[in-house]
């Protein structure tokens, strides 16, 4: 159970407070409701590049990191296709420094050309390090545009190509800030050794004077239903053949989300899972096999991926995966197997409460979903899922016609 | 009127409280250290074994045993073990590191009594079936092929081999090492290492008298002792080495450089950690500021000191654009020379002090972290005065002392420099 108090400032900024007196630390987490899905198709990778620029100094504070380190704090951030999330952890007695820093960069950035130039280079190196200079590193750069034709999920957060990042201009940076980095578009969570009344005073002092800005109304082009199977074959300097199959599934707010999460657990969570036992241990077709969901806010993907044992044909490997998925469409999952994945989820949720930062991030994310209380109702939602639900969603999802398959082959198989 | 240019007042961290464990012994003398917290209804139990009987001809013995531990006992198959552990929502993890192999159980308290017997079965009766071993060898060789395509992994391997040779700290694992694994070697190693007289149990979380008695009923008896010999290695400084492996297609080069240094037991260790922090130990470090934030050569660069039981080593690691590799290297050496020749300013040192104290406070997030802090000192034969001394050193070290440490420990004329990619 993650308790919290909640209030909204006059400028529309939502604030949640989680009091935890067991720690001498505090966390200030701020989620901006903007991700790669909000980008212009000609300027992809921008939300993430922007995240880097948020550390390049703000209107009144030339350096963001230094004053925070000076009070014993640390910070980081991440960008996904849906959100951008920033967090600070620091000794709770110095919490006001976090308010000072975060509020100033919500007020306005310094917009320095030098910072833009450096971060373009840093992000280009990140692009190379994580996506281009790694075996299989570019899978998502290939799989997204195969599975999505219209929706902005068709590009990855790093962007479609290096040139989009290299061409970013300071005017684009300013416009992006004005559009997305407003109080009404953010959720602030403060957690740890703090009191709600103190947080309220600090929030009113530092954040409330920030102008509300214009409300950003999201209106994304949605994907048409997929009616034909899509495939793509790529060859690269990798040692093993691999397969990636993506099926369409509903978004995070769909009532079946919890059933999908359990379905991926049945297939692939740990050494008792179906794919591991059948395909890796018994049939020995794969040396790695996984299934997982993208958990995105708009309709997402259910992915099965594996690396083939040398000498196994792609056709045999693919058929074996599909046979496992077919079983879920025709046979009900046993009560024991369903209880097993539910027990595991229950346990994971209890253990996740060991981390103050995780609690703060989760509160912000669930508030974005509509209500932070959902975080505390998750266990119940998982427990409600039935074997019939699993069978029903398997039938709706594992349909060849709506699959997108990437065959990733070694050069020798070219 | 709110003055946003004025930073709020702040305080340096004054006290850091460490939760000390209580010590018990099981009937067969296995020491049990417990860091208690009643906040959540869960517990983590770690069974920690020294690595033993190192045989240079069989460098994978300990590693393979650790990974395959849950692959079948006399009573349970690999699948049955996984199903039972998962059914109770528990987590069973095995880990091999240079000095120790450990088995960690995470469970909700309500399932402790159900899962402990499974863990006991695994720790005392593992069989390493040939069929499972064949699968393990096949899959590990495939994973190794993927790893060997990653420049940063290659740079780690080359660096460790250059410093530590064919010991457990340095051995360069190749596909043929996997082919050479024999089931009998695994069974022998298992009997030697996974024995009560080579075991320390570290508990953290909610754990009462009754839980201790459950633990004692399972692990305090019916478990054969062994007479294994704990690994011990001797190292001396290595000469300067430049290792360069060209990868014609590389977009980035992986760089790793450093040398054998000191470990936690040495009186200079805390000071060297502060020096390391200034150079490359945090986001505002000199290496990050120069090579990422000013030059944009890399996504990240850092330095560290790794403390092993029989050695310590200092390293700097990064991946940089292939076209700027040579420039990045010369900037790295330049930053080291600066620390040897010029005093760190009071302003920078003050920031580093506060950062390190905040970081230490923040690293004690929950009961698991308190247990981890105890393990750091316990297995180095140190007491909590180690942390008192560390905190005192962070608060009081002078710029002159840091410069002296840089000259003592960071002379680059015996550095090992590894570059994988292009120069």
UniProtKB/TrEMBL annotation, chain A:
Record keywords: Hydrolase, Metalloprotease, Protease, Zinc
Domain Peptidase M16 C-terminal stretches: 170-344
Peptidase M16 N-terminal domain boundaries: 14-129
Matching InterPro entries: Metalloenz_LuxS/M16 (IPR011249), Pept_M16_N (IPR011765), Peptidase_M16 (IPR050626), Peptidase_M16_C (IPR007863)
Keyword Ribosomal protein: no
Family according to the record: Belongs to the peptidase M16 family.
Official protein name in the record: Insulinase family protein
Native organism taxonomy: Bacteria, Pseudomonadati, Bacteroidota, Sphingobacteriia, Sphingobacteriales
From TrEMBL, chain B:
Gene3D superfamilies: Metalloenzyme, LuxS/M16 peptidase-like
Alphabetized InterPro entries for the sequence: Metalloenz_LuxS/M16, MPP/UQCRC_Complex, Pept_M16_N, Peptidase_M16_C
Domain Peptidase M16 C-terminal: 181-354
A Pfam match: Peptidase_M16
This protein's name: Insulinase family protein
Domain of life, per lineage: Bacteria
Annotated Peptidase M16 N-terminal domain residues: 67-158
């Amino acid at each position: 159970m993650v308790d919290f108090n909640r209030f909204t400032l006059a400028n529309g900024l939502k604030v949640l407070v989680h009091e935890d007196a067991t720690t001498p630390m505090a966390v200030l987490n701020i989620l901006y409701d903007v991700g790669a899905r909000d980008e212009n198709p000609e300027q992809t990778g921008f939300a993430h590049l922007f995240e880097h620029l948020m550390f390049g100094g703000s209107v009144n504070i030339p350096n963001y990191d230094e004053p925070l380190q000076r009070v014993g704090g640390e910070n980081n951030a991440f960008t996904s296709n849906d959100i951008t999330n920033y967090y600070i952890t620091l000794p709770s007695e110095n919490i006001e420094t976090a308010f000072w820093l975060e509020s100033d960069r919500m007020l306005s950035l310094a917009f320095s050309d030098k910072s833009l130039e450096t971060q373009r280079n840093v992000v280009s190196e990140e692009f190379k390090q994580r996506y281009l200079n790694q075996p299989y590193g570019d899978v998502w750069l290939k799989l997204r545009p195969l599975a999505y034709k219209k929706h902005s999920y068709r590009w990855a957060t790093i962007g479609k190509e290096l040139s989009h990042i290299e061409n970013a201009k300071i005017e684009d940076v300013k416009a992006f800030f004005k559009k997305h980095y407003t109080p009404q578009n953010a959720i602030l969570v403060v957690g740890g050794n703090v009191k709600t009344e103190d947080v309220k005073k600090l929030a009113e002092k530092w954040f409330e004077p920030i102008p509300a800005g214009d409300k950003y109304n999201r209106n994304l082009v949605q994907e048409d239903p997929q009616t034909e199977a899509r495939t793509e074959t790529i060859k690269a300097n990798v040692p093993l053949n691999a397969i990636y199959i993506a099926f369409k599934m509903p978004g995070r707010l769909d009532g079946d989300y919890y059933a999908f999460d359990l379905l991926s657990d049945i297939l692939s969570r740990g050494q008792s899972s179906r794919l591991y036992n059948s395909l890796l241990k018994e049939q020995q077709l794969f040396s790695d096999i996984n299934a997982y969901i993208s958990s995105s806010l708009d309709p997402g993907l259910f992915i099965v991926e594996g690396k083939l044992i040398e000498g196994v044909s792609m056709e045999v490997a693919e058929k074996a995966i599909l046979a496992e998925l077919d079983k879920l469409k025709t046979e009900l999952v046993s009560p024991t197997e369903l209880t097993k994945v539910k027990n595991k989820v229950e346990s994971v949720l209890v253990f996740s409460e060991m981390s103050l930062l995780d609690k703060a991030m989760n509160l912000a994310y669930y508030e974005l979903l509509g209500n932070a209380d959902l975080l505390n109702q998750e266990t119940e939602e998982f427990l409600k899922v039935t074997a019939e639900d699993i069978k029903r969603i398997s039938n709706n999802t594992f349909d060849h016609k709506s699959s997108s398959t990437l065959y990733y082959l070694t050069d020798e198989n070219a | 009127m709110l003055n946003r240019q004025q930073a709020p007042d702040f305080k340096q961290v004054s006290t850091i409280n460490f939760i000390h464990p209580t010590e018990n012994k099981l009937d067969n003398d296995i020491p049990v250290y417990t860091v208690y917290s009643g906040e959540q209804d869960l517990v983590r139990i770690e069974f920690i074994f020294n690595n033993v009987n190192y045989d240079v001809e069989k460098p994978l013995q300990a590693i393979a045993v650790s990974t395959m531990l849950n692959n079948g006992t006399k009573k349970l198959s690999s699948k049955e073990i996984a199903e039972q552990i998962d059914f109770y929502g528990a987590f069973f993890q095995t880990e091999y590191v240079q000095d120790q192999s450990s088995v960690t159980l995470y469970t909700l308290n309500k399932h402790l009594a159900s899962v402990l017997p499974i863990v006991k079965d695994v720790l005392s009766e593992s069989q390493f079936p040939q069929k499972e071993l064949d699968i393990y060898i096949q899959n590990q060789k495939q994973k190794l092929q993927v790893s060997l395509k990653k420049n940063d992994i290659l740079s780690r391997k080359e660096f460790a081999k250059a410093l530590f040779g064919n010991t457990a700290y340095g051995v360069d694992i190749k596909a043929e090492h996997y082919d050479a694994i024999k089931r009998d070697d695994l069974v022998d190693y298992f009997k030697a290492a996974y024995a009560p007289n080579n075991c320390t149990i570290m508990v953290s979380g909610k754990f009462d008298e009754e839980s201790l008695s459950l633990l004692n009923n399972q692990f305090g008896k019916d478990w054969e002792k062994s007479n294994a010999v704990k690994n011990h290695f001797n190292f001396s400084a290595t000469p300067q080495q430049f290792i360069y492996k060209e990868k014609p297609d590389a977009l980035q080069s992986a760089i790793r450089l450093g040398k054998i240094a000191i470990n936690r037991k040495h009186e200079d260790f805390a000071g060297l950690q502060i020096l390391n922090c200034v150079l490359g130990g945090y986001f505002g470090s000199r290496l990050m500021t120069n090579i990422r934030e000013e030059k944009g050569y890399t996504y990240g660069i850092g330095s560290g000191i790794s403390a092993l039981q029989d050695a310590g080593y200092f390293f700097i690691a990064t991946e940089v654009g292939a076209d700027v590799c040579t420039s990045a290297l010369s900037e790295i050496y330049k930053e080291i020379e600066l620390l040897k020749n010029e005093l760190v300013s009071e302003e920078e040192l003050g920031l580093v002090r506060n950062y390190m104290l905040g970081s230490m406070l923040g690293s004690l997030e929950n009961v698991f972290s308190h247990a981890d802090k105890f393990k750091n000192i316990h297995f180095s034969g140190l007491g909590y005065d180690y942390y008192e001394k560390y905190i005192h050193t962070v608060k009081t070290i002078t710029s002159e002392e840091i410069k002296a440490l840089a000259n003592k420990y960071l002379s680059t004329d015996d550095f090992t420099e590894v570059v994988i990619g292009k120069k």
